[in-house]
Amino acid sequence: MESVEHFFEQWAGAICDTLRPITGKPWTSRVNKADELGAGDTESIFLTFSVSEPLSGMFRSALSRSAALQLNFLFTGSESSEWNTEQQETIDELSRQFAGQFAAALKPELGEVHLELQKDAPFTGSGDGYRLALSQADGIELFAVLELDDALRKKLQPDPAAVSADNHSVQSTNLDLLLDVELDVTLRFGQREMLLQDILELQSGSVVELDREIQDPVELLLDGRVIARGSVVVVDGNYGLRVAEVGAFAEA
């Protein structure tokens, strides 16, 4: 999941997909970051959802009373200006349908995610709020304020330092898998360019002069790149290298 805004855009899309077959008309949505988030209208209808792993947290949608009544009318065809228990149950059922559609939308990206409507659950917002606007072609508009708790916010927007540490851990683990791989290295005393004619004239006893003096360091190469320099030693009758410098060196 890329961000909080992407999460809420998916939620808005799930609502539109749920309302389309109910109303027989397409819906569009807009999600914008709220500059300020107040305590909420006392007339608001709060719908709080818990989200399972891999996200694990809670988010809340605050509907104005008029928007909730409008949704109730769209779902049941029963128009009323008074809020009652039956209408609350209708909104709860509609919200569960939103949640089911939302879980289906998240599945390709996150796998199985379960959402559950939490009745009267305590909720502490993280301070980040988004405003959701839903509209239909015939002019119907519905508005809501969306919030999430700190646990869900951290899942959607993890701390950069924590992400860096996790990436470093993964990189270290991946490197450990390669430590037993054998690589061929080459010890280079020097080099020179030769004419083809000179190469063809080589014979036993010929001397090829290189571009290094005897006191110059020799080079250790890996895949054609110099990775170390040092002096030549003899170990049990074999050439060896006493390393003096290690690093990536520019070719001379």
From TrEMBL:
GO terms for biological process: bacterial-type flagellum-dependent cell motility; chemotaxis. It is found in: Cell membrane. Keywords: Cell membrane, Cell projection, Chemotaxis, Cilium, Flagellar rotation, Flagellum, Membrane. It comes from the Bacteria. Residues 177-246 form the Flagellar motor switch protein FliN-like C-terminal domain. InterPro entries: CheC-like_sf, FliN, FliN-like_C, FliN/MopA/SpaO, FliN_T3SS_HrcQb, SpoA-like_sf. It is a peripheral membrane protein. One of its GO terms (cellular component) is plasma membrane. Signal peptide: none annotated. The keyword Cell membrane applies. Pfam families: FliMN_C (PF01052). Its main location: membrane. The keyword Hydrolase does not apply. GO terms for molecular function: cytoskeletal motor activity. NCBIfam families: fliN. Belongs to the FliN/MopA/SpaO family. PANTHER family: FLAGELLAR MOTOR SWITCH PROTEIN FLIN (PTHR43484:SF1), PTHR43484. FliM is one of three proteins (FliG, FliN, FliM) that forms the rotor-mounted switch complex (C ring), located at the base of the basal body. This complex interacts with the CheY and CheZ chemotaxis proteins, in addition to contacting components of the motor that determine the direction of flagellar rotation. This is Flagellar motor switch protein FliN. It comes from Koribacter versatilis (strain Ellin345).
